[in-house]
Amino acid sequence: MHSGKHEEAIASFDLALSFSPGYANAVYEKGRALFILGNPDAAISAFERALEMNPACNQALFWKGRAYFEMGNFEDAIRAFEHAIENNYRTADLYYFEGMAYAALDQHREAIQSYDCSLEIGHSAVTLSHKATSLAELGMSRDALETFDKALEQDENSPEAWMGKGNVLYDLGKYPEALAAYERCLELEPENAVAWTRHGMALAAQFQSEAAIESYEHAITADPTFSIAYFTKGSALIALGRYMEAVESFNTMLTIQPDFVDAWIYRGRALQEQQKYQEALTSFKRALEIDPGRKEVWEDIGGVLDTIGKHEEAKICYKKAG
């Protein structure tokens, strides 16, 4: 249904409520229309009003949880889902979104429990993929791979499952297998900037920096705002000794994500290689302003100071590096 149709639906619900103010279902349906129109805050108000009229309207609890989830308020989303479960409203979708909310809070054991409840009601490649991702976050790589394979048995054309499997294989150092998984993902989603970036990372890990850069450029073409692609491209350019281009890539990333500490650090190192020592120091100091806990940056600063003959200052920096 187009947005215009949803707006018409809201007007119809309002008209119905003007004749029957206690019509809970009309308020609930209005909330759903507001949610679909991208107004989760107003949708929540509608769902709460529906629940005041009819506390047994468990679908309103579910959609209230969905609206909180959409707003990034994961704790309240979980509370709404749990309230529905207490009322014996249990659906695969409810448990799936509850799992997603727990995962967003890095509570992956709880997420897995919710995904399992969802899977008991109905198998889904998407749910299996999210369960596998939570398993991987807990360091359970073997179980994660098995679960991604189950997802691919359900749907061999699931780009999410291929991507997730590639990520686990990459983390295990199985770079050729990871590369093959990313390539399968890209066959299904050729404009997936994340997959192109991960594809490049798998190539870079096998010392194929030139090929990696091509993948990062594909990622940037697919999504010019995907900042990590500029960072990984810059890192590959450093590996090839192309320091000026690397700085340009880091600069572009930092216009998108100015507080990304590693970009300031690597930018400083690329500038140092070009003997642009003052600019390098400025870059390193900016990294420390963002994250004073990155003590290794003091080592970088010390190295620059040593190079320009400020040996006593360099010694102080090396001590700070620990």
What is the secondary structure topology, with strand pairs?
Blueprint: H1 3-19, H2 24-36, H3 40-53, H4 58-70, H5 74-86, H6 92-104, H7 108-121, H8 125-137, H9 141-154, H10 159-171, H11 175-188, H12 193-204, H13 209-222, H14 227-239, H15 243-256, H16 261-273, H17 277-290, H18 296-307, H19 311-321
Helix pairs in contact: 1-2, 2-3, 2-4, 3-4, 4-5, 4-6, 5-6, 6-7, 6-8, 7-8, 8-9, 8-10, 9-10, 10-11, 11-12, 12-13, 12-14, 13-14, 14-15, 14-16, 15-16, 16-17, 17-18, 18-19
Tell me what the structure shows.
It is a single chain. This protein has helices at residues 3-19, 24-36, 40-53, 58-70, 74-86, 92-104, 108-121, 125-137, 141-154, 159-171, 175-188, 193-204, 209-222, 227-239, 243-256, 261-273, 277-290, 296-307, 311-321. The chain has 322 residues and is an all-alpha fold. The chain has a domain at 274-322: Serine Threonine Protein Phosphatase 5, Tetratricopeptide repeat (Alpha Horseshoe).
In short:
By secondary structure, this protein is mainly alpha-helical. The protein contains 19 helices and no strands.
